[in-house]
Fold:
Amino acid sequence: MAAMNVLSKAKSGARLPPLPTIRDLVRLYKLRAIKQLSQNFLMDERLTNKIVKAAGNINDNYVLEVGPGPGGITRSIIRKTPRKLVVVEKDRRFLPTLELLSESSKDFLNMEIVNGDILDYRTEQAFPDCPQHDWFGKRAPVHIIGNLPFAISTRLLINWLREMSLQIGAWSLGRSSLTLTFQKEVAERIVAPILSEQRCRLSVMNQVWSKAELKFIIPGKAFVPKPDVDVGVVTIVPLKTPLTTVHFDVVEKVARHIFSMRQKYCRRGVANLYPPEVREDLTELTFKIADVDPLARSFQLSTEECLRIAEAYNQLVMKHPEVEHYNYRAQKVQTIDEDY
Ligand code: SAM
Structure:
């Protein structure tokens, strides 16, 4: 174990000492994957390096890794010598392997291990030493990287997009970037353009506030245990100027309604924003103000058209505040295709 403390920092990054392989550690600590925590481990160093490379130059930057597990991606991050690395892992069983990495890199890396739930973690507390960067200047040197637990990936992304839109959390430091894995279908939804079959609420929400790119696909068989699906690696960088000034929550609510009935006219979903007694009138007015065809299907709407509907709804709510908290879903059973 003594050799593990000897780390050398080369110009091109840090060389790790002869640590046991991730595969050996998983075996040694009997780290059987827990399905409820969406645990699928990446053991292939070329792939973990490729994910970290997709984040861009992280040398001397601030990195928050979500769900490091046994530490495959963590090692690839450490080799790039960020200024500070915070890892947030819910499963205590991984703490020894993460502490091993922290100990091995302590001479040149400030690594903090947080044993907790990323859904409760306040990203603004990760990097108190990082100076604030001008939103309209270069990207902030702050990166959130993670092979995300599938079960919470969409929820996490929506939370982070919201923080991005309000310039809070990791985005209080400037335009911080995300490099994340999703189930391939979700990754395709995030970047789906108008007319695409995968177009959904998630596509619109991402494209209003960020530039999202699907960098590459990792086949399911690269993970242990193998998930039923392939995985897409997506980078998300905030736009300097988002496509709207309407509040995130309003755009999210309207986009959710627009895409709630994919096979029907978009008018049908939008109508459910309003209570029955004013539904017909306000729906007609919404499409008139927005100058959008109410008979279009949701996937046929551009991001700008979705935003014009959100802006029209916003205007109408100001005139008719009594409709603001109307919730159609409270009275209806949620349907499968409303999930995204
Ligand atoms: N990064 C590792 C890799 O690529 O091999 C593990 C990825 S695995 C898909 C997801 C990881 O997230 C697991 O280590 C799991 O324990 C952790 N995790 C699941 N839910 C979490 C949560 N709510 N907060 C923090 N970590 C979580």
User: Anything to note?
Assistant: Residues 71 and 98 are 6 Å apart (CA to CA).
